[in-house]
Automatic annotation (TrEMBL):
It is found in: Cytoplasm. GO terms for biological process: cell division; cell wall organization; peptidoglycan biosynthetic process; regulation of cell shape. It catalyses: phosphoenolpyruvate + UDP-N-acetyl-alpha-D-glucosamine = UDP-N-acetyl-3-O-(1-carboxyvinyl)-alpha-D-glucosamine + phosphate. SMART domains: HTH_XRE. CDD domains: HTH_XRE (cd00093). Keywords: Cell cycle, Cell division, Cell shape, Cell wall biogenesis/degradation, Cytoplasm, Peptidoglycan synthesis, Transferase. Its main location: cytoplasm. InterPro entries: Cro/C1-type_HTH (IPR001387), Enolpyruvate_Tfrase_dom (IPR001986), Enolpyruvate_Tfrase_sf (IPR036968), Lambda_DNA-bd_dom_sf (IPR010982), MurA_subfamily (IPR050068), RNA3'P_cycl/enolpyr_Trfase_a/b (IPR013792). GO terms for cellular component: cytoplasm. Residues 12-65 form the HTH cro/C1-type domain. The keyword Cell cycle applies. It comes from Propioniciclava tarda. This is UDP-N-acetylglucosamine 1-carboxyvinyltransferase.
Length: 506
């Protein structure tokens, strides 16, 4: 039998029907939307090996129907990595550009976007409301065409509730509907992540939102034109992106103060410029946007490389005491991190700078050399860009565990992430939780193998995977779905550098 996506999908559908299982129940078991099951069964989507194994597990064991067949990793160490690895494009930029594509009546092509679970969830939502999404044969380009009228009533609510990024639909949709509703957003479990800054800022465009019975219910009032100044109460990435998208279809000028200048915000700005929107002040905390009444353009955009993935790979080299080259690293968004690492004794070299595919972001190749580290002289804490990135902070817990002395990690943003990082103790680290935001790390660490379950937060989960690379013996890291939300094929890519990681289901 042919192994094409259509023949594979037909086989899965036939087995599902024979066993009396609904598409809804399989979708629930796999933690995906029903639309994803439709795509697999009609041959529009070729599932990766991990998803295929989970699908088969759900089909073969109906007693477990409704439970999520966990994808797990077996990591054998200690590992020495070598060679080079290319940084993939930004996950956060990808989901923002997917949301921003709703502004465009024309053809949007996104090149090189990350093929990760978070992107899959947003795509499922977009397709369910009528957006035509087509991958190129080599899966390097995604074409998006918005219908004349979006069908919000057909939204895949399950997929929407599995991602926090759906909140960024507010900015585009407020220009398209006088009233609409969106499901409450989910994503990582990091404590309360308020949407109040979004709602406060978007009120200036006539948006009123009431949260009730698991939905954001939105109504949009008419507003006048002319210059408006919006000062964000929180310098957040997603709130800045939301206001940018709202301003893009506002036929006047909007000045956004206290805006985030972070990497994914810059990618949205570059995309809006391609759509014909005037955006000034990119890379600063004051953005001036002159929008258009209508956007109908055929554009091709490339999100830049992910500085968080780059930092993950830097950490992998440090924890395994390896020489490793990280190619296409966005240096503008790693300079503070590298400065802190330099102070801790890390030896590294940088190539000359070159431009990313978006024509703007500055890239370098970073070669990490084996180094003897010592604790940072001051606490390590995040700050809004150009400070140390909040998403990079957890990696410093792993790095500090390798360093001689005691390091204070202060995560003042998220209530629960420092708690999740205490999981490193199971692998041999010596961490002490001072409060939900502060963590003391004593190094150096002699890492040991363990059987552990991923915490429900992306970066701490990856930290456990990286620490396991250095542990003696075989570590079982269970239920790695949260890692797949933010990283594309990470285990296989590390294996190509010398790691010994196997995937299993159950």
């Amino acid at each position: 039998m042919s192994d094409t996506p259509s023949s594979l999908g037909s086989l899965l559908r036939n087995v599902r029907n024979q066993r009396g299982l609904s598409k809804q129940s399989i979708a629930q078991a796999l933690n995906v939307g029903v639309r994803a099951i439709d795509q697999i069964e009609i041959g529009e989507r070729n599932p990766d090996l991990s998803l295929l194994n989970r699908y088969a597990s759900a089909l073969m064991d109906p007693a477990d129907n409704g439970k999520v067949p966990a994808v797990n990793l077996s990591i054998t160490g200690p590992t020495k990595l070598s060679g080079s690895i290319v940084v993939r494009s930004s996950k956060n930029a990808a989901v923002a550009l997917l949301c921003a594509s709703l502004l465009n009546e024309g053809r949007t092509v996104l090149r090189g976007i990350a093929r990760i679970e978070e992107v899959n969830r947003i795509l499922e939502v977009l397709e369910s409301i009528g957006v035509q999404a087509t991958w190129s044969d080599d899966r390097t380009e995604l074409e998006l065409i918005r219908p004349v009228v979006l069908d919000l009533e057909s939204m895949d609510v399950d997929a929407a509730r599995r991602t926090r990024s759906v909140i960024m639909f507010l900015g585009p949709l407020l220009h398209l509907f006088p009233e609409f509703r969106l499901p409450y957003a989910g994503g990582c479990d990091l404590g309360t992540r308020t949407v109040t800054p979004h709602l406060q800022a978007l009120q200036r465009f006539g948006l009123e939102v009431h949260a009730t019975e698991g939905w954001y219910k939105a109504q949009v009032a008419e507003v006048g034109t002319g210059l408006r100044t919006i000062t964000l109460t929180e310098r957040g990435d997603t709130v800045t992106e939301n206001v940018l998208m709202a301003a893009a279809l506002y036929p006047g000028t909007t000045m956004i103060r206290n805006a985030s200048p972070n990497y994914m915000v810059q990618d949205v700005c570059f995309f809006l410029q391609q759509l014909g929107v005037t955006v000034e002040g990119i890379g600063t905390t004051t953005l001036t946007v002159t929008g258009r009444e209508r956007i109908n353009a055929d554009v091709t955009a490339s999100p830049s490389e992910d500085p968080i993935e780059a930092m993950s790979l830097i950490t992998a080299a440090i924890v395994t005491d390896s020489e490793l080259t990280i190619q296409r690293a966005p240096i503008e968004f790693l300079e503070i991190e590298l400065s802190v690492l330099d102070e801790m004794g890390l030896r590294y070299t940088l190539s000359p700078e070159y431009a990313a595919d978006n024509g703007h972001t500055r890239l370098v190749d970073i070669t990490i050399h084996p180094s003897k580290l010592h604790a940072a002289s001051d606490k390590i804490h995040p700050m809004p860009f150009p400070g140390l990135n909040i998403d990079n902070l957890p990696f410093f817990a792993v790095i500090a565990a390798m360093a001689e002395g005691r390091t204070l990690i202060h995560d003042w943003v998220y209530e629960n992430r420092a708690i999740h990082l205490v999981e490193l103790n199971k692998l041999g680290a010596h961490t002490q939780l001072l409060d939900p935001h502060r963590l003391l790390v004593q190094g150096p660490t002699r890492w040991r193998n363990q059987d552990i379950v991923c915490p429900p937060a992306l970066r701490p989960a990856v930290c456990l995977l990286l620490a396991a690379l250095a542990a003696s013996g075989t570590t079982l890291l269970r239920d790695v779905y949260v890692i797949n939300r933010g990283y594309e094929d990470l285990a296989n890519r590390l294996n190509k550098l010398g790691a010994k990681i196997e995937t299993f289901v159950g």
